[in-house]
Amino acid sequence: MDEQIPVAVRQEIENLVRELNDHSYRYHVQDNPVISDPEYDSLYRRLKNLEEKHGYVLPESPTQRVGAAPSEKFEKVKHAEPMLSLDNAFSYEEMQEFDKRLKRLLDSQEEIEYTVEPKYDGLAMELTYKNGLLLRASTRGDGYEGEDVTRNIRTIRSVPLKIRGKRIPAEIDIRGEVYMDINEFEKLNRQREQNNEAAFANPRNASAGSVRQLDPRVTAERKLHLACYGIGAVTGLSFRSQTEFTEWMKEAGFPVPVRIVISEGMEKVVGEIRKIETERETFPFETDGVVVKVNDFGLQKKLGMKTREPRWAIAYKFPAHQASTVVKDIRGSVGRTGVITPFAVFEPVRIGGVTVSRSTLHNWDEIQRKDIRIGDTVVVERAGDVIPRVVMVVKEKRTGQEKVMPVPDRCPVCDSRVLRDEGEVAIKCLSLHCPAQVQEKIIHFASRGGMDIEGLGEKNVELLFSRGLIRHFEDIYRIRKEDLLELPRFARKSAQNLTSAIEKSKHATLGRFLFAIGILHVGEYAAKLLARNFRKLEDLYNVRKESILGIKQIGEKIAASVFAFFNDQKNIDLLNSLKNLGLNLSNPDFAAEIKSGLPFSGMTFVITGSMPKSRKEVEDLIENNGGHAASAVSASTDYLVAGENAGSKLDKAIKLGVKTISYEKLLDMMKGAKGQQKLF
Ligand code: IVH
Hints:
Elements: H1 7-28, H2 37-54, E1 76-78, E2 87-89, H3 92-106, E3 113-120, E4 123-130, E5 133-139, E6 145-147, H4 150-153, E7 171-180, H5 182-194, H6 203-211, H7 216-221, E8 224-235, H8 242-251, E9 261-264, H9 266-279, E10 287-294, H10 297-303, E11 313-317, E12 321-334, E13 339-351, E14 354-360, H11 364-370, E15 377-382, E16 388-393, E17 418-420, E18 427-429, H12 435-446, H13 458-466, H14 481-485, H15 492-505, H16 510-516, H17 524-533, H18 545-549, H19 556-566, H20 569-580, H21 588-596, E19 604-608, H22 615-624, E20 628-630, E21 639-642, H23 648-656, E22 659-661, H24 663-679
Parallel strand pairs: 2-11, 19-20, 19-21, 21-22
Antiparallel strand pairs: 1-6, 3-9, 3-10, 4-5, 4-7, 7-8, 10-11, 12-13, 12-15, 13-14, 13-18, 15-16, 17-18
Helix pairs in contact: 1-2, 12-13, 16-17, 17-21
2-(butylsulfanyl)adenosine (IVH) binds at residues 84-86, 117, 119-120, 124, 177, 229-230, 257, 291, 310, 313, 315.
């Protein structure tokens, strides 16, 4: 095919690729662009047109950074040489000890030459180049085996797709850190909060989350950077020291740490650490320490490594940044599972380059333990992480005006009553309507173990939420094909598939539904047990706790939760509106009991008036024989078992035409059925 492309075109494509890569390097690695963005864009478009027209695309073409389709999962990649971690030091004394240890191991008193550079707080990456071209990018994983994230890493502009310069090794593994600038991180989090998505705790998590995206287009949108600091396996080139290798990396077009200094002896190293420590506030990225490495590769080899760390390097970790500020408020935030976590709102304060205006207080017990009150002056610290924490209250600053915050009894988002399990610190909002939880609950609802609605996974639920197509549970059954077609990710076929899957789910089994609806503590098994014991959903409305406890494998905790769920009018309203939208559950689990031929299988009884046995014993008798003992008479009640002094239940049964029987008749029915059974 290539032969058919005119030589001039081929050359133009090759020149454009070279030129564009050069500009990209100047812009993203050297921070020194020589052309304007529109000029770059126009060259890029010219290249893209030529490539499309002639089908000639070089692997290092800048057009190959973006546009890869989402993948199903990341493949595993073995590292040719293990990717190690670093030993930590938390004081200058420990740094001195490190130096002494090395001298002892090397059996020499000569000062050692070290390199000193900031430690980037991101995600470690290995970039494998073959004959100068980027072949693969992989995460560290467990150090021996990571994940192939090439398609995502290609989207990072400062990652060379091709090694520059003349010294090109046959194969080389370059190690570096993918990271996100603090500004970018804060911007991303603001955006996420606006979209009702969970914020990232720190730039490291944000980088990791961005790299581990199955859709490379998402990675491309996050402004990630690379800083290269290490070497793995290499063939066809050799280096004598860290600095020689760094010089080569610069020449080859790799971004390296902003500051690398060579220092002889630990005294000077400590001086450099101090400098970085004061300078680090000005770095645009998050750094939690300084990496100190023996410069000479020969010495590195001699020193070797421990199981997971080299002996020739160490990370000096900065102490946590601290500042004091005033607690303006204590509020609760509702997580995806309904857990309400308290957080403090501060008078905004800058701590180590980051503005801190709130911090989690973990749980309500912790507030009491630390005695944090609204109006208190507190010491807040940020360790390596951006997550701040309250260290302590400055009690001397109390004026007496401080306010103790009581543990809330209502959800701060939806105002429903909250539940606190005995012996647990967490308090939870159980409402199905709580907007803070709806999105996550819907993801669970539609999941494979739940209603199994194919096409309604996390991504699409997020999309439907952000477009306002889903706000409440019921909205799932209101989605129309036309609405989906207006969304970026849907075409005619996928919209049809999703609406069909939603339609199909209306006929799911009761067992699936009871799991999918997300009743606290009700897993798949408990849901199935409930379905086996209750004929239909309505049988659970206003159910009594004892009836649930009557199911053998169900204990107090689940029973309390099921009871609370079905005795909350808001939930019942929701279930009814789902029914009105066409939800029509089947219950093969219950039918199985009917087939099993127990005397009362498939029958619902209600007991009223005085009985010769205790109420519990009569219920047990019914349930042990396959029946269901319900608490209220309804149209679905088969028999009212009435004794002396029967009251309103009897009236209702007469009104609804429900058959009334005595306790003796109940026994007869049971025996009769058993007798019949014997005949077969
Ligand atoms: S050198 C043998 N230099 O910190 C390991 N690592 O906590 C050589 N890191 O796994 C690593 N900045 O991901 C080195 N300037 C730097 C670094 C750096 C960040 C990361 C790296 C390493 C981790 C250890």
